[in-house]
Amino acid sequence: MSVNNAESLRHRTKNFALMVVKLCQSLHRTHEARVLSDQLLRAGTAVAANYRAACRGRSRAEFIAKLGIVVEEADETVFWCEILEESGLVDHRDIDALLNEARELLSIFAASQKTARSRRP
User: With contact defined as beta carbons under 8 Å apart, do 54 and 96 qualify?
Assistant: First the structure.
């Protein structure tokens, strides 16, 4: 991955984490919303944190392993967004941009992980 792509993704994942924080701040303070918000907040911010850790990987194997965590967290973020929307706790207009970005990041990182695994050392 080029330095420009890595920097662009670091910026993009940080903005994604901020989108997650803002959505969580906007949720009503019901018990259900609080529980789901906590799950979304952990997974969504972990995408950015773990991608940064992957970029600092000391080896190819460590990079691939950390990228696997990013994929898992992005997939979990998609799940919590879907639950929030389908339960009616969040209107689709308020979560569509976040959900679309989560799906795009998931696709990017899953493809990156596959490519990194297939390359010979």
Answer: no
HSE toward the beta carbon, residue 106, CA cutoff 13 A: 16
**pTM (2 decimals)?**
0.92
What distances in angstroms separate CA 101 from CA 1, 13, 35, 62, one per listed residue?
A: 20, 9, 22, 25
Amino acid at 32: E
Token pair, residue 15, equals 């903005």
Sign of CA dihedral 49, 108, 116, 76: positive
pLDDT one-digit tens code per residue, 69-98: 999 999 999 999 999 999 999 999 999 999
| Residue 13 near residue 81 (C-beta atoms within 8 A) | no
The domains found in the chain, sorted by start residue, are 3-118 (1.20.1440.60)
